[in-house]
Amino acid sequence: MTEFGDKSMGALVWVPHAVEVWKKAQIIQKLSETQVEVRFVSDGVEYDPEDGKIMTYDVREIAKLAGEVSSNAMPICNTFDKLGVEDMCTLNHLHEPAVLKTLQLRHAQFVPYTYTGQICIAVNPYKWLDLYSKDLYFDYLNLPRNDLAPHPFALSSSAYIDMNKLGIEQSILVSGESGAGKTETVKIMMNHLASISGGGTHGSLVIDQVLKSNPLLEAFGN
């Protein structure tokens, strides 16, 4: 975040936008203790008809929408490469606009998974991607998590390792809106668990039974 004041002039920040939700802008003038004048800045290679447009915003409203701790703070822009970051906890400035921008960049490159600490966020690409080959099953079980791209296999491997090491039952929570890809994600992780545990045919049968029970369970509420 950047505290709103004379020293923040020229800083690149995110401001609310009716279409893009958040838009990159540059602070050009402090109008009062709570009002700021900004100039929209193009955030891509495509033509932006609003590039250079000047707008006035209430700093308090921006801080509230972005989830900033201080009511006098504005969400400052991070510097991103083409794929954003693999773990959003590594962002220098973590707020709602930074989260959405990271997921947007990765989704555009057909990279559906992003970590936030121990959480794996999935954005449904609505197409099958070649990210689930059996060659990867034991990579996520044996290699350090940071050496591999974000993936549900990392979560199922962690649960399997902890269950064997600690002897305690493990749970993986998969949540999301309807159509987000929860059922497919559960199937991906269960197939992975069946393979790395040596479940064989019996493991596949259990997976099939669990997945077929989903419609019944969802009838009681998703």
Automatic annotation (TrEMBL):
GO terms for biological process, alphabetical: actin filament organization
Keywords of this entry: Actin-binding, ATP-binding, Motor protein, Myosin, Nucleotide-binding
Domain called Myosin motor: residue spans: 83-222
Record: residues binding ATP: G176, E177, S178, G179, A180, G181, K182, T183
Domain of life assignment: Eukaryota
A cellular-component GO term for this protein: membrane
Molecular functions (GO terms): actin filament binding; ATP binding; microfilament motor activity
PROSITE patterns membership: MYOSIN_MOTOR (PS51456)
PANTHER family assigned: DILUTE CLASS UNCONVENTIONAL MYOSIN, ISOFORM C, MYOSIN
Family (UniProt): Belongs to the TRAFAC class myosin-kinesin ATPase superfamily. Myosin family.
Protein name: Myosin motor domain-containing protein
Source organism per UniProt: Aphanomyces astaci
